[in-house]
Amino acid sequence: MKQNLGLIGIIGAMDEEINEYLALAENLRGEKWQGFEFYLGQIAGKNVLIAKSGLGKVFAALVCQKIINTYGPQKIIFTGLAGALNKNLEIGDVVVSRDCMYHDMEAEALGYSRGAIPYTDYKIFAADENLKKIALETQLPNNKVVEGRILTGDQFITRAKILEFSYLTDELQGDAVEMEGAAVAHVCTVNQIPFVIARTISDKADSEAGIDFNNFLGQAAKNSVQIIQTILSKL
Asked: Average pLDDT by consecutive 10-residue portion of the chain (235 residues)?
């Protein structure tokens, strides 16, 4: 891997999560690979690579590794939406990753605690301290920006399942839950690429989660953009 010291990778899972970045970017040029699109350009005078991963851990990891192998970014930021686990979070608040974990990695029968990946030392993926610090400096007019633990699994969590998933808070002490962040964090950690995950709360992982998610998608994406703009302006 040849590192491009001036390039910042920005990944989102959905069109709504990256369209705001594409609208801000200048001198865009797109490249395609296996059905995925990668956009090179500038935001706030910084060279950026913007990509949509698609939903779920495998797509997120695949796209992240492709970006690292082909474009050699100096840092990677993953943004988008998440459900709240922390009761103090409201829709529109942003959780900046202190760290990330898989909540659906379970190999207790092999002697590993929940989240630990068997036969490795990987369990908790810590975000880059400087990126986290800068992201936390973002000021939103109507919402707060806080650090927390982001949990990742291939499920959309609703309140109907909350008893089944009580370990998300009781055991794993998660603040927000989504479907891609830890996979990106995992790939970045293996490749020694500094990263941060910034997730805007779109729902409270309750019975209205699907409704809230769809209704708030646009506004939540705009809050994520402000995080990106803060980071890029201070790097």
From this structure: 78 86 94 95 95 95 98 96 90 95 93 93 97 95 94 80 77 94 98 96 61 65 86 91
**DSSP state letter for 184:** H
Architecture of domain 4-234: 3-Layer(aba) Sandwich (3.40)
Rounded CA-CA distance 104/167 in Å is 11
Please give the radius of gyration of the chain, using alpha carbons only, rounded to the nearest integer.
17
Find the helix or strand (DSSP H, E) in which 18 lies: helix 15-24
What's the rounded Cα separation, in Å, for the pair 122 and 103? 13
Measure Cα distances from 29 to 35, 38, 48, 148 in Å.
Answer: 16, 8, 11, 35
Q: Which residue has the tokens 């992240």?
A: 64
Domain map (residue ranges) of the chain? 4-234
Q: Residues with catalytic annotation?
A: 17, 203
Nearest partner of 70 among 100, 40, 104, judged by Cα:
40
Instruction: Tell me the pTM.
Output: 0.91
